[in-house]
Amino acid sequence: MVKRILALIAVYLWLAAAAIAAQGALAISGAVPAETMTRAFTALRDPGRQMGIARAVAAARAGEFKPVEGSAPDFGYTPDVIWLRLPLVNDSAAVRDWRLRLDVNFFQSYAAYQVAPDGSITTLERLTPESPFSARQVDYPELVTAFQLPPGQATTLYFRYWSGGSSQLNAVLETAAGFERFAASRTAKNFTYYGMVMFLILAALVAWGVTGQSIFAAYGAYAVSGLLFIMHGDGNAFRYLWPNAPLFNGFASLVLGGGIIVFGANFARQFLLTRIHHPVMDKLLLGVIALTLAMIVATLVVDTQMIKKWMVLVATLSIALFTVSGLVAARTRWREVRFYVLAWGGAVISSALMTARHWLGIEISAELQYDSMRLVIVVDAAMMGLAILDRINQLKRARQVALEASLREARHNLDLSRRLRELEQDYGLAVELSRSHERRFADAIHDLRTPLHALRLHVNALVSGRETAREETAAAPDVEETFRYLEQLIGQELQAHGSGGLDAARQDLADGAAPEVARIDDILARTHEMFLPDAEAKGLRLRYVPCHACAGLPPLDLMRIVSNLVSNAIKFTERGTVLIGVRRRGGALRLEVHDTGPGLSQAEFDAAIGRSVRLRPEVAGAGLGLSILREMAATHGLDFGLIRPRAGGTSLYVTLPPAAVPA
Q1: What is the CB neighbour count within 10 angstroms for residue 584?
Q2: What is the DSSP string of 412-473?
Q3: Angle at CA of residue 524, ends 522 and 530, nearest 5°
Q4: Which residues constitute the signal peptide according to the record (predicted)?
Q5: N or C: which terminus of the chain has fewer CB atoms within 10 Å of its end residue's CB?
């Protein structure tokens, strides 16, 4: 009888203890979602990281554990150890095997304990930073804790963890059978996604091998980084790729996330050709690459946890930069970059979700973040594939156009060579004629020498292929203008040999013949291009100020006036600048040429305008330049003189008669 009474008392005490333990406990009968789990959790932070399970149980009895705020336990990027307490009571009829699944792939430190109503403690799981994947109790890429809780009984679970990244934790409680079904579904989903991305990566590598286009390799590297980042987030990278490298797994997200940024920036540079078309964007993309690599290297001396947080922000800003680069290119090359812009536009949304969670504290589940990344990378791969196909088609068209342009250029160069030979023959004839008409042809030869030298440099460079295609294209109009100027000048002098030439022109002007109209801007531009090689050979800057007025002079005569002024300035200037421009003086125009040479006094200028006068014998020349200008100015009734004699350079002017701009 006594034994029976003692047994009843023991059962009563056990039931009482169970009832006390079940107060505030979460009643479970099947799967429990994360939101319900969060309301059942209480938490305690351990800044010293020294608290053990016995001290945690005592702290719970003392009321030190506090309810969790928000939809999930989240303490930010903190160095503290986090303790979570979860009281449970099994309200099912037959289930005793349970699984607590944490929506994280890895914690640097993780332990789980089960405390019975009588105070006995069972260690369910204990993982350290050195624990390989095989040390896990449940063979699953995410952290899963298995425990036994028979129907009608109560227990309390304690979880101790510390994360090298974010401390956010979503937990789901499931039966053992329910977890097996979920695990099979999740594994099929993950590997279906991996297979899709790996197929796209393989296609990119094959295309690289077949076409030799490095853009395929650049995209393949970016896609591999994205795939590995997702695999790491799912936990499968630790499970299959580096199961015995837990220390590397601890900061693999930083390396792989940095790879997405670095390889993404490199792909953007190659695809958009930013170095050629958008130099500013190219420098920004290179800056992103340098910053990312510096952050990864900084983990050797700086807290990795904070670098991970900053890497999230850098990733978002980088993807936004990739998108902006595409939009900049789309202003002139929309067809070429349309799929690129669409692809990165989706990536901006996914990266913004991650930034909102880690920087703004917005409650977004890790599963939603990674699902958005999965979707973005698949769509991104398809869009980038279309974009690259566009690029290949355009390259084919560009090669065809380039081949046709090359053939045209070859024919053009042959024609230039022929015309150069004919021009040099005409020049030789002009020299022969100058022996019998020394004064007249000496002036013409003086005006021909420098531009012909510049022309020869241009043509030889074009024919020998030393200039780039773009420089050849830009130089072609200038070469044609120089040819026309020299051909007209020689033709005029040869014609004058039989018809009176300059004397006839003077007579026409005296008889009131209407002067021709010369566009000053065209003359200045042609002169600038003609003499630029000589100026650059001496290390001088040759500049001109555009002028949209017209002068009442024959264009050839105005060209000779400007050419003589510029040639003289370059000849006597050793360093600095030669500047050409036109000022309005009342109703007239004044052509001015300024240099930074040794300067001329008024007396020196008066002497220099005499024929064959050389003030500085050490400078090569015939002493004809200023005398030709004086005679041409007198022929057309123009003023020619020195502006403010100064020691730091020479400024000369010639007045020009204005004329109405021709329609």
Answers
A1: 11
A2: HHHHHHHHHHHHHHHHHHHHHHHHHSHHHHHHHHHHHHHHHHHHHHHHHHHHHT-S-HHHHH
A3: 100
A4: 1-21
A5: C
419 and 383 share one domain: no
Task: For residue 226, give both structure tokens.
Answer: 């994205």
pLDDT one-digit tens code per residue, 586-616: 778 999 999 998 888 888 888 877 766 666 6
C-beta neighbour count of 570 within 10 angstroms: 21
Three-class secondary structure of residue 82 per DSSP: strand
Report the alpha-carbon distance of residue 259 to residue 229 in Å, rounded.
9
Examine residue 37 and state whether it is found in any structural domain, yes or no: yes
Show Cβ contacts of residue 244 under 8 Å, excluding neighbours closer than 6 positions: 132, 133
Assess contact for 99 and 135: CB atoms under 8 A. no
Same domain as 453, residue 382? no
Name the residue among 173, 176, 168 with its Cα closest to residue 138.
176
Q: Among the three residues 386, 401, 416, which one is the final residue of a domain in this structure?
A: 401
* Per-residue model confidence as pLDDT tens digits over 200-216: 888 888 888 888 888 88
* CA-wise closest residue to 155 among 115, 120, 100, 122: 115
| pTM of the full structure | 0.57
Picking from 256, 258, 385, 272, the residue whose alpha carbon sits closest to that of residue 322 is 272
612: left (phi over 0), alpha (psi -120 to 50) or beta: left
Q: Do residues 153 and 237 share a domain?
A: no
Burial 136-147 (b: 16+ CB within 10 A, else e): bebebbbbbbeb
HEC assignment per residue over 158-215: EEEEECCCCCCCCEEEEEHHHHHHHHHHHHHHHHHHHHHHHHHHHHHHHHHHHHCCHH
99: nearest Cα among 70, 124, 69, 66? 124
Q: 348 with 473, same domain?
A: no
Q: Is the dihedral of CA 354, 355, 356, 357 positive or negative?
A: positive
Query: What are 588's two structure tokens?
Result: 């007239």
Q: Are 266 and 289 in contact (CB under 8 A)?
A: yes
Helix (H/G/I), strand (E/B), else coil: 482:
helix
Q: Exposed (0-12), middle (13-18) or buried (19+): which is 108, by Cβ within 10 Å?
A: buried
Domain that includes residue 167, residue range:
20-181
Please spell the DSSP secondary structure of 105-155, one letter per residue.
S--SEEEEEEE-TTS-EEEEEEE-TT--GGG-SS-SSS-EEEEE--TT-EE
Instruction: Please say whether the beta carbons of 228 and 256 come within 8 A.
Output: yes
d(CA 622, CA 613): 8
| Two structure tokens written together for 563 | 């050419």
Low-confidence ranges of the chain (pLDDT < 70): 1-23, 357-358, 361, 363-374, 376-378, 380-399, 401-402, 430-515, 611-625, 646-647, 661-663
- Closest to 84 measured CA to CA, from 121, 41, 28, 21: 41
| pLDDT for the residue numbered 358 | 65
pLDDT of 484: 61
Round to whole Å and give the CA distance between 19 and 11: 12
- Do 310 and 216 share a structural domain? yes
Residue 499 is predicted with a pLDDT of: 44
Number of domains in the chain: 3
With beta carbons less than 8 A apart as the criterion, state whether 207 and 223 touch.
Answer: no
Query: Could you give the CA distance from residue 200 to residue 593 in angstroms, rounded to a whole number?
Result: 64
